[in-house]
Amino acid sequence: MRTETVEHPLAAALLTTLRDARTDNPSFRTALRDLTGILVYEALRDAPLHRFEVRTPVANTEGARLAAPPLLVPVLRAGLGMVEAAAELIPDARVGFVGIARDESTHQPVPYLESLPADLSDMPVFVLDPMLATGGSMRHTLELLAARGATDITAICVVAAPEGVAALADSGLPVRLITATIDQGLNADAYIVPGLGDAGDRQFGPR
Ligand code: URA
């Protein structure tokens, strides 16, 4: 599996805002939105282009647009805070949804929503989930996508744990990972250390 950790001073500063326990919900949402923009930008670095002629006020020249805009799939609820930034950068993108809660005692994913196009065989997919912890939710999402024929999947995460990265690599599913950091590991509650806490609570308040 290809894994890219995005190294950029602005990404480092935004990640610090997200990590800081004093950051309030609105500031957290803003920093998550801005950092998502950087991660999506990197995820599209090698995206194929469709080239066509465009007329400027002065002359004709070559223009370009994405040949295949990805399907954006935020994993609810924490991925909600990433979808607006991604959709603004890729206005032609369609959006699907996967909802997965986590059982706080077993740490297992509990799926509750799936709203995806039936055929994904010709469509790149960007899965948006800020936290890759055990990898359970991401793996479930990848399996849903692969069952619909997806072969070109990018997982865009803000913080990844080595355990989650290994789970994706071991899954054999067609995925690459773009993240802002790979942290130390998981604690006994399956939270990423040092991480940033519960990414859903930090955006929207505790349930
Ligand atoms: N989900 C979160 O929101 N935070 C973690 O640290 C792990 C899973």
From TrEMBL:
Q: In which pathway does it act?
A: Pyrimidine metabolism; UMP biosynthesis via salvage pathway; UMP from uracil: step 1/1
Which metal ions or organic cofactors does this protein require, according to UniProt? Answer: Mg(2+)
Keyword vocabulary terms for this entry: Allosteric enzyme, Glycosyltransferase, GTP-binding, Magnesium, Nucleotide-binding, Transferase
Q: Does the keyword Transport apply?
A: no
Which residues does the annotation say bind uracil? 192, 197-199
Identify the Gene3D superfamilies for this entry.
Answer: 3.40.50.2020
* Record comment: activity regulation: Allosterically activated by GTP.
Question: Membrane-crossing residues?
Answer: none
In the record, what terms sit under GO molecular function?
A: GTP binding; magnesium ion binding; uracil phosphoribosyltransferase activity
Q: Which reaction does it catalyse?
A: UMP + diphosphate = 5-phospho-alpha-D-ribose 1-diphosphate + uracil
A Pfam family recorded for this sequence: UPRTase
Record's cofactor remark:
Binds 1 Mg(2+) ion per subunit. The magnesium is bound as Mg-PRPP.
Q: What are the binding positions for 5-phospho-alpha-D-ribose 1-diphosphate in this chain?
A: 77, 102, 129-137, 198
A GO cellular component annotation here is: cytoplasm
Known EC number(s)? 2.4.2.9
Q: What is the stated purpose of this protein?
A: Catalyzes the conversion of uracil and 5-phospho-alpha-D-ribose 1-diphosphate (PRPP) to UMP and diphosphate.
Q: Which family does it belong to?
A: Belongs to the UPRTase family.
Instruction: Output the PANTHER family linked to this UniProt entry.
Output: ADENINE PHOSPHORIBOSYLTRANSFERASE (PTHR32315), URACIL PHOSPHORIBOSYLTRANSFERASE, CHLOROPLASTIC (PTHR32315:SF4)
Q: What is this protein called?
A: Uracil phosphoribosyltransferase
